[in-house]
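pinning this so it doesn't scroll away 📌
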Amino acid sequence: MTKLDFALWDAVGGYGDRQQLMADVYDEHIRLAQRIEADGWHSYFVIEHQNSPLGRITAPSVYLTAVARATSTLRIGAMMWQLPFYHPLRLAQEIAMLDHLSRGRVEFGTGIGVHEHEFLRWGVDYYQRAAIAGEVMEIVKLAWSRDEVTFRGKYFNFDEALPQPKPFQQPHPPIWAAVHSDAAIEFAAKGNYHVSQNLDTDAVVARKFDLYRKIWHECSHPGPMPRVFLQRQVHVAETDAKAHDEARQYLLARQGGAVPVGGGTIEQTRIGWGAHARGMGRDSERPDDKARGETMRQAQTSYEFNIENGLAIVGSPETVIRRLEAGKRLIGYDIFCTNHEIGSMPPALVENSIRLFGKEVVPAFRS
């Protein structure tokens, strides 16, 4: 068996009991991070969402500081921090402080966001999000490498800023780019960033990661090759039949998919999902986004489509191990990130799935 690192993607009770005290929710998931550390997982990730029913991690650095202080070896990060929503110097300092408080265990996941309504509600220009994020990233790297930052840009201007501290990891924490479009893949390859994906079918992800590697090599970056991260819905049970029986109804529910868009409580608000039913404004009509929208539509209507196209991995530990090995050969990921909290799946099923994965799947890929 080839070596593979595992990350847990934690929705932090995203579709759980909305009446549960958030202090209890956070404590419960910090304990989860401690358990997976004990079972030998490589890393633990959350995702930032603003203006969302899933918005339990609206300040990733704050939550991850608590996780850092409760763990000692587990690497921690957000996949992703939504760059267009940040003051870049404050973000650089937050991540550097988190890196020190974790003694060098931060993975810095970056992205621009996809849902128009999140930007409308904060008065941020959705169609400038990539350009804003580009400036944020440039300034963050300056703040990590220079004692003084003077910057003149379209969106940010600083005159002799004195950012502190510098990161614990040198020259800086690993930088990840959450990529979907070919343009984002090119950006990541040219920037020499690690890359992550979660929404496309295995065949499409394989093509996109091959494109990333091609562009990266053409740039003649010094090695080593950045890491490749794939996140999927995963459910493990004692037998294949039991796993499929438990997962089917939750995977096919509206909130069971990777990114449920349209309907729900957002649609009931005045702003709703924004200018387009698919939630991405006029970007919803771009070819790559339309294709991904069709993938998500089929995933919500066909359980078999999820399984056959790798969007979900369901089965006994032995079956999951075989699927992961096959996926690694096809796609070439070296970090596989599991999301066990599928929609409103009962906590007992989620916990058993994580337990079986940690006890039986993770050790199979250690050597």
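📌 and the second one:
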Amino acid sequence: MNTDANKYNNDEVIDLRVQFAKLWKRKTLFIKVWVVTFALACIYILPQPRTYTVDLALAPEMGGASATGTLSSIASSFGFNLGNAEISDAFYPELYPDLLSTNKFIVDLLYTRVQTADAAVDTTYLNYILRHHRKNPYIKPYNWCRAQINKLFEEDAPPISHTKRMNPHRLTRREDAIVNKVRKSIQCDVDIKTNVITIVVKDQDPLVCATIADSVRVKLQDFITAYRTNKSRIDEQYYKSLADSARIEYETISRQYSQFCDAHKNIVLQSYLSERDRLENELQTSMSTYNAMQAQYLAAKAKVQEQTPAFTILRAPSVPVKPNGPKRMIFVAAMLFLSTIGTCIYIFRKELVSQFVGSVQN
């Protein structure tokens, strides 16, 4: 029984010196594989368009705290969210990524004016994507074949117009493809602990990338500001219309009073004096109404400014110096490593097959 155990242990022992010697004898094969792999990897990765990434961090001013605000803040410090109890807004920060992915937000972004880093292109973001985006040359045959197949089953979509603005509620197939492409290049994350908004934009040109990132920030700030001040702006317009009506009424009565007094100088008839007193009372009433409406309008206007949130830019967008992808050296090194593993498996294929068959039989 001990003899069988020793035999089994000896069979399981792998002599590394013997295996390395076997691999060294096939060094010519490794060199050929490495040369071919290196050449193919370079041919594949070098034409790939480079991409740049710009990120920014934004901290918006939150609404007034409620009685449960302190408890929500404590829970957020441990990574829990109690439904934004500390703010009264229905549009809370966790919904900002959903806003950035809507068709309307993306369509508005497509008409942002951009300029490339070399100043060779100065156009809209939509035109830049359509005409100046570098494409992978290896996928052109695939795209052509797919387009020909789509023509057999679908009607060809009309080309994207450069003069007519897209309708975000009714996109064509080509417009939807552009919107989805831009949507994938924009990422928005919100930290539930601090409510800090992080926006990441990826594009092929560094200056375009920074411009779009800043445009996303501005449009997001404008939307949040418009939402927070919507009720106050409606009140402001309402009181402005009342103040304008009161001013017109005051000016009309003041003109009537002045004309009456000028036309009835040195007249002591009681009927004329009564009419003058009546006009004077109406003038005083209209003046008081106008002053009250003007005060309400100024208060509503001040409330709009009070409700306007302040934004703190924690990390401003800057033009990147180096591209973030594709990682050419890492890709080539990974391909060489995989080819080495594959070659080793090819050399030891017989031993591996015999060992696998033996384990199955046992």
